[in-house]
Structures are given as C-alpha cells and as structure tokens.
Amino acid sequence: MKALDFNMPKEIEFNFEKGITSFKGSRVLIFDANIMGLLRNNLIAELGEEKARAFLFKLDFQNAYEEFLNMKQNYEFDNEMELLASGPTIHTWRGIVQATPKEIKFDKAAGKFYFTGVWSNSWEAEQYLMFNEKAKVPICWSLTGYASGWCSAFFGSLTIAMEPVCVGKGDDHCEWLIKDAKSWGPELMFIKKFLRILTYRILLWD
User: Fold this and answer.
1) Distance of alpha carbon 162 from alpha carbon 53, whole angstroms
2) The domain containing residue 48 runs over which residues?
3) Adjacent-strand bridge partners of 178
4) In this structure, what CATH number is given to the domain that contains residue 186?
5) Which residues face 26 on adjacent strands?
6) Is 22 exposed, middle or buried (CB count within 10 Å of its CB: 0-12, 13-18, 19+)?
7) What is the pLDDT of residues 58-87, one digit of tens each?
8) Residues 142, 151 contacting (CB under 8 angstroms)
9) H-assigned helices in 140-191
10) Between the CA of residue 74 and those of 27, 58, 131, what are the distances in Å?
C-alpha cells in the first residue's frame, strides 16, 4: 500500500472493559497537549535546556524506532519509499504535527540519506510559545527525535534530523532536514554527548 493509504483511526483498538487502547499489540495512551507542554516546560526548569533537549530527543527517537519496526512487521507497502513516507503519515495521524514530505533521496549501499519536508501546526512549537518568548534557535526537539529515529530504523544506520525553520523562533512554519550522521558537519555538535547512546541502541535493536 501507499503511505497515504494508512488510516490510523481504523487500526486503533479500544477495549473499554479492560481500560486498554492498543495499536498492533502495543499499548497507547492519549494525553492532552497542554499536559505534555507542562511536562516539557517542567523538564526544562528542572534539568536545564540542554538536558531536557537530550531527554526529549532520545525519548521520541526510541518511540519512532520501535514504531517503525511495528509498521514494517504488520503492513506491506508498495516500495521502500512508501514505507519511509509512512512515518510522516503516522506523525500526522497522531496529532503531533501536519507532516508533508518534500524531497527524499537515499542510497543504502553508499550510506547516503537526505529527506526534507514541512511541519505545520507543531504541538511542540505551540506549547513552547505558551510558556516562553520566541526562541533564538529551533525548539521542536521531540519532533526531530522522532524523525531521526524513524529514518534511522529505515536506513539501518544513524540519521539525524534538524530544523532549518521553526515556528518556535518566529517562522510561519517548521521544516525538517534529515541526513545520515556522517554528512552533518559542525551542526551536529549539540548531539555528540548522547550520540554514542543512540548508536548503541541502534546496534542493540538490529
């Protein structure tokens, strides 16, 4: 099937008697975005911005990595491109953000990966601006973590997403740019403190 054929609401199972909501055997929870925004803000207050950023990035990296494996196991897509593009589709269905892919290029044999797109209505940027003034740098840390984890699982080696454009710093929309880790230069410095952990987890899950 094609990525846009995936209809997540039809795949969610609600068991009222047991109090369990699940997606293909994985239990899922539904939270108000305002509560998640409060949690995010408290993480920054308690841990500091750098540690909060690392925590949120890693959390959604792992979430996306496992979600990709679940999708690959349970659904058959027309080709690899459609499988990869199902990540933004899921992100959109989950109410996280409206994700629209723009350009996808990858060569697994050569170890090269390049994926761009537009994020609209980011919950993370929305919540950030409820608690803070406009940032000087992009702030959708969990979104970039999810995109990095999804593409890393697909590609078989570490890919990293960054935001060239972000509503949290005053832009009218957000954009993602995902490349294989080796193709990033000095921009990757912020993540080096926990890059080794992410690489270890990828090797562990393969």
Assistant:
1) 13
2) 3-205
3) 115, 161
4) 3.30.1380.20
5) 23
6) middle
7) 899 999 999 999 999 999 999 999 999 999
8) no
9) 141-155
10) 15, 24, 39
